[in-house]
Amino acid sequence: MKLVVPFERSFDATYGLEYIDPAHGRVAVDARHLGAHGAVQSGVYASMAESIASTATAVEVLEKGFMVSGLSNSTYVLADITEGVLEAAATCRARIEGEWLWDVEIRAGDVLAAQATIVIAVRPASRAAPPPAA
């Protein structure tokens, strides 16, 4: 898969996402991930979930002439994590025309730190842009 932006210059690289495979990734928690309350900020979890679901979808559909884009992200933080490694695993639950539904679990060791439901839009890459609004 050809990346438009090299991974090392991407947002994912900025916060330290490391891909294990397209549907699994991890982030080693450090001070940049923590909010004022001392625990990992919810945006870290939401970013991990959407990136992994988008990437796992893209790996399967880009070479078939489709593009992917995040459509919906519902991420729920379930535990205050202050250190360690966050491990995310995405499971595709449904593939319907134009959308893929993913569940993503993010764990810190044995603790379920966050749960996300992600919907990824899958559209033909050659689709013409809609006309400008009047």
Write structural notes for this entry.
- With 134 residues, the protein is an alpha+beta fold.
- It has one domain (8-124): Hotdog Thioesterase (Thiol Ester Dehydrase, Chain A).
- It is built from two helices and six strands.
- The chain has helices spanning 11-15, 42-61, and strands at residues 18-21, 24-28, 66-77, 85-96, 99-108, 111-124.
- Strands 1-2-4-5-6-3 form a six-stranded antiparallel β-sheet.
Structural class designation: alpha+beta
Uncertain segments are none
Fraction of residues in H or I helices: 10-25%
Q: Please give the number of β-strands.
A: 6
Q: In what order do the strands lie side by side in the largest sheet?
A: 1-2-4-5-6-3
In total, the number of domains comes to: 1
**Beta-strand residue percentage:** 35-45%
Identify the quaternary structure here. single chain
Morphology: globular
Distance between the ends: 37 Å
Separate helix tally: 2
Topology pattern, helix = H, strand = E: HEEHEEEE
The average pLDDT score comes to 92
CATH topology: Thiol Ester Dehydrase, Chain A
CATH hierarchy, class: Alpha Beta
CATH level 4 superfamily? Hotdog Thioesterase
Radius of gyration, in angstroms, nearest whole number:
16 Å
CATH architecture level-2 label: Roll
